[in-house]
Design a protein that fits this description.
It is built from 1 helix and 18 strands. The protein has 264 residues and is an all-beta fold. This is RCC1 repeat-containing protein.
């Protein structure tokens, strides 16, 4: 839990010991609304009930940038911004958390190599940053410096961002992917890039999706796992290597899996 810093930097800081003692606390106790004795909303007033503690609800790491969803659905990003992946309308790097304008009610965030995508509480999705492989899903290959809605997407439950591709799980368990597809990482049976969300045939009852640099894995509600895409090092887990898969391929011997992640 972090406090807004009103001392000239638009960043965040952990409470200092004097601040903790000033609230009548010891150690790192954080009872609800204990922040009200500080001017956390920077309006010059203390103990006004407006400066509640800020909690990070979700965080995502790209290759050189980071984004965090705060309580209430606001989004902050920082780091490398050459492609506009911080979503603040510029290409200037940011050394501290910077608000993403015009974006609220964010439920989940995903960061690829140089792009970022957010799922909103109403099930819509927006993406921004590098788009040279169509990874933003807006039907173009033009990079965007601000959040751009992904047309046709609704009821999104979770989103994952790989190097230059993106995948979304819908509330009903179906999956769509878009962006780079050189090694079949979109799972549609082809190696053709897609600039708009494209359904992954044969997938249903998916609970979570994970996107690596060039491969993708899905976790099913029953605990099984399937993977597809680049397999030079055996990262698809099917007992082979070197033979890339363009469609979801079950990972043998796995069951009751609770979480999945994909690396580079």
């Amino acid at each position: 839990q972090l406090f807004k810093d009103c001392l000239g930097s638009a960043g965040w800081h952990e409470p200092t010991q004097p601040e903790i003692e000033g609230m009548g606390l010891s150690g790192y106790e954080y009872p609800e609304a204990t922040c009200d004795n500080l001017d956390n909303d920077c309006n010059g007033l203390t103990d006004d009930g407006l400066g509640a503690c800020v909690t990070v609800e979700d965080i995502a790491l790209g290759e050189r940038h980071t984004c965090a969803v705060l309580t209430g659905g606001t989004l902050y990003c920082w780091g490398y911004n050459w492609y506009g992946q911080l979503g603040d309308g510029t290409t200037d790097d940011k050394l501290s958390p910077t608000p993403v304008p015009g974006l609220g009610d964010v439920a989940q965030i995903a960061a690829g190599e140089h792009h970022t995508c957010a799922v909103l509480t109403d099930g819509a999705a927006s993406c921004w940053g590098s788009n040279w492989k169509g990874q933003l899903g807006d039907g173009t290959i033009v990079s965007k410096y601000s959040p751009t809605p992904v047309p046709g997407l609704g009821d999104v439950a979770q989103i994952a961002a790989g190097r230059w591709h993106t995948c979304a799980v819908f509330t009903g368990g179906a999956v769509s992917c878009w962006g780079e597809n050189e090694y079949g990482q979109l799972g549609d049976g082809t190696t053709v890039d897609k600039h708009s969300p494209t359904p992954v045939p044969g997938l249903g009852n998916v609970a979570r999706i994970a996107a690596g640099k060039l491969h993708t894995c899905a976790l099913f509600t029953g605990g099984a796992v399937s993977c597809w895409g680049y397999n030079y090092y055996g990262q698809l887990g099917d007992g082979t290597y070197g033979n890339h898969k363009t469609s979801p391929t079950p990972v043998p011997g796995l069951g009751a899996v609770a979480q999945i992640a994909a690396g580079s």
